[in-house]
Specification:
The protein is of the alpha/beta class. It contains five helices and 17 strands. It has a seven-stranded mixed sheet with strand order 1-2-3-4-5-6-7, with helices on one face. Helix 2 runs parallel beside helix 3.
Length: about 230
Amino acid sequence: MVPLSFADEEFALSPARALYWPREQALLVADLHLEKASFYARHGQMLPPYDSRETLERLAHAIRDTGARRVYTLGDNFHDDEGSSRLEPHAAGMLDALTRAVDWVWITGNHDSALSAANSDAIGGTIAEELEIGGLMLRHQAMPGETRPELSGHFHPKFKLRARGRSISRPCAVVSSSISGGGRMILPAFGALTGGMDASDPAILAAMQPAQAIDAVMAASGRLVQFPLWRAAA
């Protein structure tokens, strides 16, 4: 993991697309989209049915590597509102073990907005629409006009570049700075079967306003790599 300063806090960003917050001993991930493969199978598109296992295994590794005692998932935890009921026994057991091992908060997103306290008995943890933790807003989708520090997901940002004659696309975080000093960050999608949106897409840039600057950041080769996406006019 590589150090990342944001909103006067110290974080660590991993190549595995997780963000660790040492002061809170918290791991933050976005867009797990558990049971995406089974959702598509119901509609006739057959995908390997092990995406939930892979996602939860990577999440378990991230918890172990950071020593996190809390996990906040920033929405679209399941690919649809019935996803939690389709978890096969192995994946369900993995999830149960994880939610028992750490304090776990599911923040709901547009794909799983029906998650409620009733679901928490089946999937563990607690459920919230959004939270404020240590002065930072945690929600699924960046709220245009927000001036408080904010962490969100939803857009699945990826940065595209050309290297050695090839076009390469990698998941990234998108970070903004603002005159108010708050700053906002969109996390990359963590799930195994999640696609992505170009980090410079107008929808992402608009969602991060007001801003002085917007950058794509990622962990690569043990260091933080930063690419400018947008700058306010002088």
